[in-house]
Amino acid sequence: MTTVVFLLTPGLHLLDLAGPAQVFSTAADTGLDYRVRYVAEHADVPTAQGVGLRAETDMPRLGSDDLVLVPGWRTRDGVRRHVLGAGHAAALVAHHAAGGTVASVCSGAFALGDVGLLDGRRCTTHHELQEELARRRPRARVIPDVLYVSDGGVVTSAGIASGIDLALHLVTTRHGPATAAAIARNMVVHTRRNGDEPQASAMLRHRDHLVDIVHRVQDTIDARFRSALRLADLAAAVGVSERTLSRAFSAATGLTPLRYQQVLRVEHAEHLIGRGATVEAAARAVGFQDARMLRRLRSRPGAVRL
Question: What SMART domains is this protein classified in (predicted)?
Fold first, then answer.
């Protein structure tokens, strides 16, 4: 079981907490082995939005597969003081030192900076706070205009709703993009992945829509992209005509179902080639009969090259 600990601070923003908490809760509902815990210095936690929360006060025992996440908070006077008690601060540092992942949403990055976890690392925070964070933590490299940054087991995200993107990214790294896309679909949010990574999986990149029949067909293609998939069978599976499916799929993703499948095949082939496979072996592994089609698709402008 993976434990996700939300380390709560007074005045926290509800969406900083609720967004990623919903991602991991939904992951658990789909059968993944997650347990969400809420820990704070004091059992009663006031929030910036006026709703009080209750939390545990003792940090649970954690392993290297577990996650500690600090949501952001609002200050009354604009001064960002140290908000973590000595015990919880030490537990946060010890968890990271033992190989665990720590993360923050919005101004939660200041808490990570206070305990030295941003030193020498790339990071981000809410756009209105980036200059302040860079000034206070000169040894950190604050990255603007991204939703999240991952560097050495420390994952930081921008403001408020970007905590959802951070959590989906963490699910992607552990369980793959198809699982993250399914969770995003369940939550009725766009699946975005424009953190600091130059490549975004096609499974996520083309899920930025709310068309149910297209999502269902994408689920099938994602799971069976190595197989020969007939348009007629895909259309029949969702109860529409081939013409209707083609139009809906193209409007939602910018691709035909066949082209989407080809993009997935090429993307997976590039991963295999990057790990030492020959073009011929990679082509066979992803479902091409021979390497000629793979070479042709790889040579297209804009083709994925890892």
Answer: HTH_ARAC (SM00342)
Beta strand pairing status for 34-40 and 2-8?
A: parallel
Q: Residues 73, 78, 84, 90: is their CA dihedral positive or negative?
A: positive
C-alpha–C-alpha distance, residues 118 and 109, integer Å = 8
**Structural fold of domain 2-182:** Rossmann fold (3.40.50)
Topology (CATH) of 209-298: Arc Repressor Mutant, subunit A (1.10.10)
Tell me the domain boundaries of the chain. Answer: 2-182, 209-298
- Cβ distance 53 to 34 under 8 Å? no
Q: What are the pLDDT digits (tens) for 235-273? A: 999 999 999 999 999 999 999 999 999 999 998 898 888
Question: Would you say 298 and 305 are in contact if contact means Cβ atoms under 8 Å apart?
Answer: yes
Of residues 70, 74, 47, 42, the one with CA closest to residue 58? 42
Q: In what order do the strands lie in the sheet with 34-40?
A: 34-40, 2-8, 67-70, 101-105, 154-157, 148-151
What is the value of pTM for the model shown? 0.74
- Number of residues in the chain: 306
* pLDDT of 71 above 90: yes
